[in-house]
Structures are given as structure tokens and as C-alpha cells.
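TOPIC: backbone geometry
CONTENTS: sequence, C-alpha cells:
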Amino acid sequence: MAKKQKTFRPKPRKPRGFRDRSGAELLAEQEMLRRITAVYASYGFLPQETPAFEYTDALGKFLPDVDRPNQGVFSLQDDDEQWMSLRYDLTAPLARHVAEHYEALPKPFRRYQVGTVWRNEKPGPGRFREFTQCDADSVGAAAPHADAEAIMMLTDAVVAAGVEKKDFAVRISSRKIMSGLLASIGLDTEDGGQSGTVLRAMDKFDRLGAAGVKLLLGEGRKDESGDFTEGAKLSGDQADQVLAFMQAAGADNAKTLDAMAGLIGGSETGLAGIDELRGIAETLEAMGYADQAKIDPSVVRGLDYYTGPVFEAELTFAVTNDKGQEVQFGSIGSGGRYDDLVKRFKGVEVPAVGCSIGVSRLLSALEAKGQGADDTQKLIVVATPDRSRMADYFQIAARLREKFSGHNVAVDIAFGAANLGKQLKYADQRGAAAVIIQGEDERAKGEVTVKDLILGAKLSEEIESNEEWRSGQPAQVSVPEGDLEAAILKTLAFRD
């Protein structure tokens, strides 16, 4: 007798760095996005969408190697054997769009976009491989005024998203000034080897401090696990100049810029960067943003396409990670100038600046701090104890939806189990505020029963006996059908 073949049943599981999301979390994200995009729109930016997939060579940094694209992106080959990649961010697709439609677009082209991006990188606390970004960019706008606007807009958007001003700061620097610093210590800024190692070391200043960065600028550093990172092999004097630059922050933006200028020598590129940041700082001062947005020499943006001012919105409070350790959450938004990005397609320089907010990361940070976005939507469930009267229950639901339109109230009908007890359990599972019940007895009297689940749950913790509970029934009231809307208003503490 032939052996019966076992049916394959895949294990339900997700890849690392990816999440299922639903309910309150998505409602919170939608509300956050509404607030952020309202700020972008108030500055005159219009919405845009681009495809999730782009040809890999259009992404700029991640070009195909011999057999397949570089690490960092999720890629596949099309049926014509061209490599395509899920977009790494929303800026590279924007550059492709501008180059493709350059003649028809107004200059500057000002757009915002909300979309999912994917990064094939190691996940960590609050860091996912799939997440939502919310960008705004001005293409065709020169420095420094468009850059100052982007910084102000980013600041306004983070505040609108629910972060208190005391809990974040926008830190500003410039890739031009970084280039001037590297040139002043004798490095070839066009050679990404040693210069890139120096910049990567500088980018770790917040985490490793001056001592750790100095090791990385020299021979190298061994971490706590024993892994050794090769250093930039700078001389002692070169390393000291880099560290002095990173610690050049003064009492205000003007003093910081003076100190930075004194450490980059006569570099023409570096001094041009200083002038741009002075223009930005003056605008921020005049508009009242100088306390929130600070020039910070230690900011080193990681993406290669930045060409001028760069900035990061960084949370300043600590959160607890999976190991129970308190850590700084770090950056939740960033931006900068990328005048060469469209040039890859057009062959001519097109000035551009933009900002981006990692919405998924920001939501995680607020949740970790206990400041998750308030889910203010109230749910009302209409019970269906008599399935022969479903049309009546639909009418009750329609009346309530019409009445509470604009009040962020949802009305659900209990279609599941016919048993009323199970319908009440369903309402509890949904987190409903109230249940509407009209069985045979209520209908005969021309009444409906409104059961306040939130008050009922609270009172059930306080009332010690069933007799005490039955004597009051404070969380359940029967009213004439015509008074249903008023009873719901009272239950939800709304005013008509």
C-alpha cells in the first residue's frame, strides 16, 4: 500500500524587520500623517505618488555589480533581465520623475509624498526593513532660503505630529564644510576611501564620544565584543583637528559658525558652506526657530547624494530597548541639499532640497515614551438579538452615523454570533464605548437600551457585590427610541 503523502503546511511567520499592523496603530499613523501633510500643504507643497519599484540604476547609490545589485535594497530581475529594486527612499524616485518630466514642471517643483520604503538592512529597536516616510522637497530652489524653509517646515511637522519642543532638536551642518575640513587636513575629498572612513568615524561621535572617534580616526578601535574596526590612519595632528571641529559648537549659531570657519583653513568649498549656513541661521533667528534648530558640527549625514546643508531632527529623550537598557532613540527626521541628484539623468545641475520624517519610527518612539497618539475614535456597536429585524438595526446604525458624522464616531453592527452575550463580548474585544440593544421587550415599549461599556468596566472594578451592581445599573439605561441620539451624546460626553 502506497504511503500517503503528507500535505505541506507552511509555518505562519514573518521575515525579520517586517510587521503586521492593524487597528489603533494604523489609526494613529493615519492621524499623524494627516497632521504632517497638513503642515507640508500649508507651505504650498502638493501631493505626489511614485512606483514602489524603480530600475536599480535610477537609485543612484545602489548600482548593480557583476551579478546582482549591492546590499541595502531588495531587488529582482524583470522579464527583460533588467534589475529592479524596491525604493530605498522617496527622494531618488523624485529625481527620476523630475528628469523625466523636466520641461513640463514648474520651477521650483514642490511636492510631498507619503509612501512605504524598504531597506535590506539589519533590523533593531524601532528600526524596520519596511516603513513609512513622509517627504517634502523643493526642486529648482537654490540655497540658502529654501533650506531654511525646509528646516522650519520639518520642525513644524514634528511638533504637529505630537512631539513637544523640549523633546527634540534639529541639528544642522553642511557637506561642503565637511569637504573643506577634509581638504584642510590634506585628504582628497574625491577619493571616498580614507575620506569616507573619516566621515564614518565622525558619524559615530554621539555614540562613542571623542575618545572612541579618535581611535577610529587613528589605527582603529576594538569594541566590547572584541571586533576590530580599521581606522582612517590619520596623524595625531590631523585627528586633533577633526575632533576640534566636531566639538566647535558655541553659545549660539553665529559663534559655532565662526569656530567652524577657523578650522577649515582657506577652503573655497568649505567657506561657501559657511556662507550658506550663515544665511540659514539668520533666517531661523528672524523666524524664531534658533532655539530649536542649532548648527552642530558633529552632524554627518550618511547618504552620498547630499551636496550642501544637511540636518537631522533628533529626539532627546531616552527609551528602554529590548534588553532593558536606556538608550537614546535618535533621529526621526532628516533632510538636506542634493544639487547633483537630477544631474545623474540630465547632465546639468538642478538645485534641490528636501526633508523626510520616518513616521513608523516616530510612532514607535512616542509609544515607547508613553505618548502614543491618542485614538479618539469612539465605536458604537448595534446588537442584533432578533435576526428577523436586521433592517431595523441597519436603520439604527444609519441614524447614528448621520448624527455623529464629523465627531470621529464609528458604528458597527454585530453580524457574528446570534447570542447576545457573545455579541457583548465582541463589543468588548473591539474596545467599543457603547452597545445599543433593542430586543423584543424594548421594541414592545418603543425603547432602546444603551449599555456604556467604558463606565461599566470602571464600575465593575469599584462595586464589590452583585446586589450593589443590580441595584443601580448606572452603566445601562433604557430610553425612548426618539431619545437615542441624546442618550449616546450623554454616554460619550459629547455636546450636540
User: Anything to note?
Assistant: The CA atoms of residues 198 and 232 lie 6 Å apart.
